[in-house]
Amino acid sequence: MKNDIHPKTHPVVFVDTSCGEEFISTSTLTSDSKRDIDGVEHYVINVEISSASHPFYTGKQILVDTARRVEKFEERMKKSQVLGSKKKSKKEEKVEEVKDEAEEKEIEETPVIEEVVEEIPAVEEVVEETPEVIVETEEKEETDEN
Questions:
Q1: Tens of pLDDT along 19-40?
Q2: 146 lies in a domain?
Q3: Starting from the edge strand earliest in sequence, which strands make up the sheet with 10-16, in order?
């Protein structure tokens, strides 16, 4: 085995920040903080998830998520479920079309009731005014010709 080609290992303590569990081991990782455990100085390495807090190992759905990934995923799922419930299948759409066509046929078959509307006297006044306007335009044409 060649000398000085392998990284140096140090005693470390991995601290799970979500549940506070500690694992003592050796690693090539180092940190600025150190702790004495049984008279041996260990580097303290903080980790977010370990076997003590991961749902796969614990069987629980408790997970500390610093980036809000789980909450964002749950929000997307709720939106998709709401939209999915509003969306209709092709079969349901066809049933609605048949119902709409049946309603239209019923409407066409119903008799239309007509109402008699009385004539409005204002219409007669408009008819009387239009010849005066025509007369005025004829007088203007005669003055233009002279």
A1: 889 999 999 999 999 999 999 9
A2: no
A3: 22-27, 10-16, 40-47, 34-37
